[in-house]
Amino acid sequence: MYSIDAVTPGDRFSSTVRINLRSTGLHPSVGELDLGEWRSEQEQLDRESVLNSASAFVDQLRVARRSDDGAAYGVLLEVAPEFLKDFTRKDGLAIERYYRDALTRAGDVRSDRPTIPILGSLFARTNVRRFAEVLQYALRATDRPSSVLWLSPMLSRWGSTRALPELLRHLKASLRRNSNDDPDGASPTTVCLVAGRPDGHLDKAFDQMAISDAPRFPPALEVLLIPKVAAVVSVHAPILEQLGLPVPLGIMSFDQRVVTRVQDYLSSRCSTYVHNLQSAPAIFSDLAHVDTSE
User: How far apart are CA 120 and CA 193, in angstroms?
Assistant: First the structure.
């Protein structure tokens, strides 16, 4: 802010600074800060405090590899063993080899390719497009589920993007529009499964929050499940580095074998989540063998 007069605190205002992180295939966990969509490089030099704040924000996103990351990658092998058979070793998933394959594979969705690799955040434009294509195929012959479950990874700032509420709105509209029962009926309930106290942006984006202080899921695991329709499973951990930005790596599928396994996996571990007792049966009604008495 520039002014020839004195500026009082009451005259200040806030504005959004758009941050992009760019990395290469050789170093996916090393992100370079890019503020080009906010200001030109010359204008950025005059705003040192903003640059420092943006750098500090990026530092908060960096994580170290964890001993339980292997368990999260193991979930991928559990739900999609056929698709990942060429990347399965005795000690688990061949992470770096699968990463390179996901990086170079086209990944377009087809009727004869119900499962595809996903690399990067589900909020990225390319992955949003692929997810929309998955829904188009998956919703051709299925009933509308009453709920959508999204297990958030235990990461700082996960979901703090305008793409999250937009994606949820699109998802609910697609499910309502493709309903075989009543296209004008109520939208499915979107539920976020989160460990500990949820951030405010998650509370605003989702219809319901299911909270656990003793989660039974690996911290790096993210799961988006539309029961009986489609599923996205990814692991957020550094790749090719011990410390760095987490690189989401996983699968996106409308293969009913995969979707059923994801449902079974979630249902066997979500009983520790505390939720609104009145709405609990409706929220989890699409999952089999769920104990909603807690």
Answer: 21
| SS3 state at 132 | helix
Number of residues that this document lists for the chain:
294
Radius of gyration of the chain (CA): 21
Both tokens of 287, joined, read 């999952």
68-106 pLDDT tens trace:
999 999 999 999 999 999 999 999 999 999 999 999 886
DSSP annotation of 62 reads -
CA distance 95 to 91: 11
pTM of the model: 0.86
Strands 208-212 and 189-195: parallel
CATH 3.30.870 residue ranges of the chain are 64-283
**Cα 123-95-192 angle, rounded to 5 deg:** 35
Tell me which architecture the domain covering 64-283 has in CATH: 2-Layer Sandwich (3.30)
Q: Which residues contact 196 (CB under 8 A, 6 or more apart)?
A: 154, 211, 213
